[in-house]
Amino acid sequence: MEPAEVSVLFVLRWKTNSSPNGSALRLPNVAVDFITVFLFSSTRLFEETLFTVFLLARAKARGGKIVRDIWEETDGGGTARFAVVQTFGDTTHTFVERANYHGLFLPGYKPPIQKDISLKNLPPAGLDFVDHCVGNQPDDAMVPASDWYEKSLMFHRFWSVDDKQIHTEYSALRSIVVTNYEETIKMPINEPAPGKKKSQIQVI
User: Fold this and answer.
1) Domain 6-16+30-108, CATH
2) How far apart are CA 122 and CA 118, in angstroms?
């Protein structure tokens, strides 16, 4: 799916053992990790390349774990560059630089062999952009997680609330929202707060 400013990629792992994250799919209820893809699509290729290299170097220098350093993939549409860093828990962020790629989506992706004739009858998805992506934490882990984004990825605090502001009679939470310099990527980092019952973070 590719609406206005966001690409949504649905991935099905056929063999869970083939991926370092595959073990999450064998756990009950829900997967425990996810991958966030930050797309830098500026046409200023030289500046973009420098920024990606600088960002990875900064993360390394400040103790960030580099799961996979910068690598390139190429096909007839050009070349895209990738890098993977680990944030809280088993969660990873994959940086994708595709300013020099002009193919369908990323190297290796091809148009479908057959066109689904029912697509023209479906309503628009209505997904113009991703407002935020939440990272829920156990109790007392919110601040260290948000500090990691500020220290390693040059994010800054955008907004924060505590359990006095977000609560019901039974449930409460605390939240720090971090964002990048342009404030186009927002990451609410939440943790549970005491209440009569479990916080919605603990339930979900």
Assistant:
1) 3.10.180.10
2) 7
